[in-house]
Amino acid sequence: xxxxxxxxxxxSVDLAxxxxxxxxxxxxxxxxxxxxxxxxQQLGGLMRMQYTAQKESYLAAYPGAEHKxxxxxxxxxxxxxxxxxxxxxxxxxxxxxxEYRNRGIGSRLILDRIREAEDANGVLTFHVLKTNPxxxxxxxxxxxxxxxxGMYYRMEWRPNFPESAADTAVx
Length: 171
Known about the structure:
It is a single chain. The protein is of the alpha+beta class. The longest helix is centred in the first third of the chain and has 22 residues, at about 40-60. It contains 6 helices and 7 strands, in the order βαααβββαβαββα. The protein has helices spanning about 15-25, 30-35, 40-60, 105-120, 135-140, 165, and strands at about 10, 65-70, 75-85, 90-95, 125-130, 145-150, 150-155. Strand 6 and strand 7 (about 150-155) form a beta hairpin. About 20% of the residues are buried.
């Protein structure tokens, strides 16, 4: 069932109460670590360390960001972190549990931020892991790759993006 037909709701993150959900969600986004073939106990320690580093980094770098749990029909399915400036919306992070991906949730959230940027005559920016298949979704939605940051691409949506920029294909 498409997410549009189900109720998508948001609530502020409570770090103490949501810690385990956020950690479990994080582990589903780290195929790069799970593919290393290391001992499960070592992998667990590495995942916990990386999760903690990301959480602390986001809290320090984006203290005013909106940090929400995404629920679908009352079930937590993901989280998003959005930092808003005067004319820039920075999508710091978006993560959806694997069993809820490809149901239109990510598209809806990106399109909502695009509309918000459009209303502000601003820009939506975010980074995406180069191996993330969602890059093609972002390109279809009119975003463009505007930079290379090592393991990540910088992507943007802005009003009146030239079609050639939004048509950039990932090779």
